[in-house]
Structures are given as structure tokens and as C-alpha cells.
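Aim 2 progress. For M14 family metallocarboxypeptidase, the working sequence is reproduced below.
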Amino acid sequence: MKRRAALLTATALTGLAATLVTAPSAGAHDTAAPPRTGFELTHGARWTTQPEEQRLLETVDRASGRVHVTRIGTTAQDRPLRLVRIGAARTPNKVLLVCSQHGNEPSGREACLTTVRDLAYAKDRETKRFLDRTTLLVVPTANPDGRAADTRGNSDGVDINRDHVALKTAEGRALAAVIRDERPDVIYDLHEYGATPPYYDKDLFDLWPRNLNTHPGVHDVAQSLSEDHVRPAAGAAGYSTGTYGIWTDPVTGDPIRQTAGDGQERILRNLSGIKHAVGLLIESRVDPLTDAEKADEALNNRRRVDSHLAALNGLIRFSSERRGTVEAVTAKARAAGYADRGAVYLGGADNETPEPSEVLADPPCGYRLTAGQYAEVGDELALHGVRVQKTGNGVFVPLRQSLRALVPLLLDGRATYHLAEGEAITSCR
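Predicted C-alpha cells for this construct:
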């Protein structure tokens, strides 16, 4: 199938008949032409610099009444972490894009910056209607220090996408606070991967939350987002797709072995599901696909970014067309913890049966932390949004709360990434 480059306008994102603003409109603060990224200005010869990103965000913040840019944190090297809000001030439906958690995976960041700019300036009726009903939240560079150094980890060498339980990094803490405060219904996490031909060799791979503590309704809608929306949108633009972490035979399509994509809770894709958001990890291929891409790095770079933009088309359509379904399943999942029923899983995945020792078939009603333990982990519990009850000497953390399944993952000594080993309380009045 012949590839079609993704249009760098709102049309590429919504599939609607959108155009960019070229004249003053109601509520506009600036009549300048829409800004372009450094990537666009060089036709993909280099990535957008951080000063260029800052100027672009400042420009769209001034120019569009539907955009608001805030600082949500500061890295160890004093770089800002920014959140862009696009849409109405208050909407029941929120979609969060987390871009380039790994600093050496820049194509997702470029797609996010283009998305921000295009939706800021689009003036067509359908895009306006979409943004009247949905708030798009974007963290354009989730790892600024790593992007500056072109490294996977942050300036301390920590993989941010393995820090969504411990919250030891400024980047992980900032994202946790956004998820706690905004309660996004969808969390879409943009990455890149290195191919392993011929078995692991698509333009794009994606994967939903596999963690077994994900509410079934959220899990199923996340899988549908992948298989019924994101992959078809990418395929319509000429890009091949597959399930992340699974090697498949290029002839038969049969799975050969799993190389990644387990259910560990410290990865954002899985923690999204545990926190009741429809999560999806999306990975574009770094390696050149053709001799032309091998000879022209800019051509390869454009394919990496354009494939992400094509997939984003599917996400935006999904968010528009299935808004009611998403709101219903996330609301049901958030309420389910208060019933305090059902097993909690310390291991396993939707494609991996947990060991009996990894299943809390009859979980305790909560965990008691001493004053000393709470002093060590209280900030992290608060960032996660876990509710605690003060006691005479410490705190009690009940399971009867929205984040019921997260509590044992944080406080049970048998959980792989627990923050503290709380005292399990089996009888509560």
C-alpha cells in the first residue's frame, strides 16, 4: 500500500474538514500565522529544540482562547515540565497525551506539538464541537532532561516509565499529580521502539493495560481503542500495525513469543488501567524501513512522526465517537472500589495466569502504617490519590476506596514494587 504523509493540520487529527485560522476570530488574542515546529521548518532534518518548543507553546497560549499552558514541575536540571490544556474549561471527558517519556524517542513529542498547534488554530465547526465536549491534556515533553541529552532516562539515569509507583523522580511525581487532579478518562502514551526483523517489524505497535487489576470494562474499551480505532486509522494511512511485545511469524501471523508487555504496575500503561483510565501505549519504529530512508535520515524521521499522527487520528475519532461509553466505563470503575469486593492481583496479566501466591483472593480490609512509615511514603500516597485515615500512632489505609486495587500494590510486602510493608488488617468494624 502506498504511504500517505499525515497532514500537518487539524484534519490529520480529527478526520474532519478542518482548516487553520488565517484571520482574526472571536476570542483570539493574536492574529499571527500559526507557528511551526523546528522539525517542520527543517522538513524533518532535526528535532524541535526546547527553546523552540517553549516559543511555540507561548505563541499558541497567547493566540488561542482554547489553550492554557501551565508549569507542573521542574526537573533536576531546572527544566520546566509543562501541561497544555486544550478545550473548554470544564468538560466531563478528558484525554491525556504523555509524550516522549524516554528522551531518545522524540517522534511522539513532535506529533504532540503538532497536535497542540493544529487544535489551537483549527476553526471548523466539528473540531470546535469536539473541544467543547472533550478536554485534551498534553504533556509535550515528559522527560526534558533526557530529551536534551538524547537519553532514555532522565538526568539521574532513571527510566521514568518505571517510576509510576515509587514516584522518586520529579517527572513521575508531576505526571502522578496530573492524573490524580484531572482524572483523565483516556491516557495515551507515545514511544518508539527498535525493530527485530522479520518478527517484530511493524511501523507501529500498541498495547492496552494488561494488569489484571484493570476493571474489565476499562480493559475492553482500551483494547477496542487499539484494535477498532488506532490500528485502522494507521492502516488507512498506509502504516502496518501490531501488538507491542509479541513476536509474530511474518508468514502465518502466529505469535512466537512474548518479549515485553507484561502487567507490571509501575509502567504508565498498566497504572493507567489500575487508576481507571482507558490506557494505550503506542510505539513507532525507529529503524529505517527502506533504502531511501537509510539514505535520508529526514525521510525516516518524517515517517516516524507521521505514523504517530495517523494513529492520533484514530484516538481523536474514538474520543469523539465513543465519549459516552468511555465516561460510563471509567465512572463505573472508579465507583467499584467502594464495594470492596473481589480479588486483588499482585502478578499475572491478561495473557499470563498469575501464580496462586500472586492472588489476594480475600484481601484485608486495609493496611496500618506506623508514624515512621507514613513519614516515608505519605507524600507518594497523596500523589497517587490514595485516601488514608489518621490513627493514634500512624494511619490506616482502607481498601474501601476508588483506588482499592492500588493499595495492596503499594503497601503489601508481597507486591513486587511496594512502597512500604504495612500491617494487614483483616477485621474492620
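Residues 1-31 have pLDDT under 50 and may be disordered. This observation will guide construct design in the next reporting period.
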